[in-house]
Write a structure and sequence with these properties.
With about 240 residues, this protein is α/β, with parallel strands linked by helices. It is about 35% helix and about 20% strand.
Amino acid sequence: MAAKTKKKRRVLLKISGEALVGGRNFGIDADILSSIAKQVKEARKTGTQIAIVIGGGNIFRGMAAAANGMDRSSADYMGMLATMLNGLALQDALEKIKVDTRVLTAIEIRELAELYIRRRAIRHLEKNRVVIFVCGTGNPFFTTDTAAALRASEIDADMILKATKVEGVYSKDPVKHRDAKKFKKLTYMEVLEKRLKVMDATAISLCMDNNIPITVFNIKKKGNIAKAVEGRRIGTVIS
């Protein structure tokens, strides 16, 4: 009788659009993009299958536009298209360093990316390709954090890695408040009850329902993606 094949570790990396800005006010910093791509390549050497959900806040923020009078649905669809731009840029950066990558979109744009189909995404991961999910859930009124929680649930990811510009989750904004306290561990309910701005409530609830732990860490420190993938103690763990 053949031995049972051990399931490969699979993670979903959530990268905000703002993480790509670097020192700019808008757009994509090529050096930051290259650094993220190299970190993903390094993390992939562990044998872990890596999927990525990328935001679009460095180009367009739907909620901000809606607050200024734009129709919310239209604004959110524009934000989804911004994630496509970031996804294609990240794919280019990864493929320049010989990392086989596929972009899967929740909104059909067949000239640019493959339409998201769950089984197709899993097959790409099994072939050791990095899969980049773009256009959120394909629906307005849902954030890319919720898209990350949804895709992680669908592909049976072992954990979500939430890449940020700070060391983890704090009691308040550490950039503005010196007395901000960093949490090493939190439960899903603590995040919801304390209204900590990690991910939106829908995303946290979805992770809680499907028992998907979240590691929140600083993407600006080189090597942190690999450390998070390996399960080393960095940032804040929510479970």
